[in-house]
Design brief:
single chain; alpha+beta; HIT family, subunit A; eight-stranded antiparallel β-sheet; three-stranded mixed β-sheet; 17 strands; globular; Ap4A_phos1/2_N; ATP:ADP adenylyltransferase activity; HIT-like_sf; ATP binding; 5',5'''-P-1,P-4-tetraphosphate phosphorylase 2
Length: about 350
């Protein structure tokens, strides 16, 4: 078995220190949020509101130029103040320059690889190394509550950058603003994961797994998601490849306990108040698998707090709705569990 990748043993404190220095030096933007908990069936969902995100800085534009500017790749040459550490020869860690959750950081490929292609074994091995580093410091008495890792892939997933990257959020910082107590915990780890309005595919994982093992879990779940989307939309593919461009939009999430894939058919949905009036639109990325949603204007914030069923309605529309197709705990059984994945030669 190949030797597992390792991340810095002091990764949680390294992330904290780098974030504090970058914030103090003006090298990143942090957008504080208000937070409340909404019921989504039996599942507690965080709803966060950040009015400052509406004024998020934009790259400068040359008004005199008639040539379209090539989008900036933020992971090609990251600012030194945001750089955290290398993880193996092909990946590195960098802070998110626009953070809603403090200490939000990113695992990026050193060389450009497509965000819309399937993840490779080193991508997941490096992610697991970061999760393992947080677990090791936790075992030594650090107050860290572990990592939530997520990946956005495809046009409906909430992806915004073409350079491949996996995002990492310290779970204890995801609790910022919440009252103490078990009001919320990461959705991907919950026993009632099958009660979400959208179908997910999941398997248990463990920090001790190898990169090959974790990649095998990912490919197996991705194959199940592809077949489920094909069956629902009537565009079932004959085979699901293990490399190359994705066949579907999806979000992946990984914690120390579980790997989850959520197929996506839409990036979000319209928010309606109790009177049925359209007050805005919520877009969701892979943080939905943590049980969180973010709004950017006060009308959406007020409407969802007053009518949590409006969030349930949005969540039913972003992927494969469970209604009429799945009973609790049976979604995976409704899809042929046999792998149909082949490796591209």
């Amino acid at each position: 078995m190949a030797r597992a990748l390792s991340a810095p043993s002091n990764l949680p404190s390294l992330v904290r220190t780098t974030f504090a220095k970058a914030l103090a030096g003006g090298d990143l933007h942090y957008f504080p949020t208000k937070v409340t908990i909404l019921p989504v069936n039996s599942v507690p969902f965080q709803l966060r509101f950040s009015p400052a995100l509406a004024n998020k800085p934009k790259p400068p534009q040359d008004a005199s130029s008639t040539t379209p500017r090539k989008p900036l790749d933020p992971f090609a040459n990251p600012p030194p103040a945001l750089y955290i550490a290398d993880v193996g020869p092909s990946h590195y860690l960098v802070l998110n320059k626009f953070a809603v959750v403090p200490e939000h950081f990113i695992l990026a490929t050193r060389d450009f690889k497509e965000q819309t292609h399937l993840l490779e074994e080193p991508d997941l091995d490096a992610t697991l190394a970061c999760i393992r580093a947080f677990e090791e410091t936790r075992d030594k008495g650090d107050e860290s509550d572990g990592l939530f890792a997520f990946f956005n892939c495809g046009e409906h997933s909430g992806a915004s950058q073409p350079h491949r990257h996996i995002q990492l959020l310290p779970v204890d910082r995801m609790r910022d603003g919440l009252e103490s107590g078990p009001l919320w915990n990461v959705l991907a780890d919950r026993e009632d994961l099958a009660d979400t309005p959208f179908v997910v595919f999941s398997e248990p994982v463990a920090p001790a797994m190898s990169g090959a093992e974790i990649h095998g879990v990912y490919l197996r779940l991705y194959g199940q998601a592809c077949r489920a989307v094909g069956e629902r939309t009537g565009t079932r593919a004959e085979e699901v490849l293990a490399a190359g461009p994705t066949q579907i939009s999806y979000n992946m999430a990984m914690t120390r306990n579980r790997l989850v894939i959520c197929p996506r058919l839409s990036e979000g949905g319209v928010v309606c108040g109790r009177d049925g009036r359209d007050v805005g639109r919520v877009a969701l990325n892979g943080t939905l698998l943590a049980g969180t949603a973010l709004v950017k204007n006060e009308a959406e914030w007020d409407a969802l707090r007053e009518n949590p069923d409006a969030l349930v309605a949005v969540l039913k529309g972003i992927g494969l709705s469970r209604e009429g197709t799945c009973r609790r705990g049976e979604c995976e059984e409704a899809v042929d569990p046999k792998s149909n994945i082949t490796t591209r030669g």
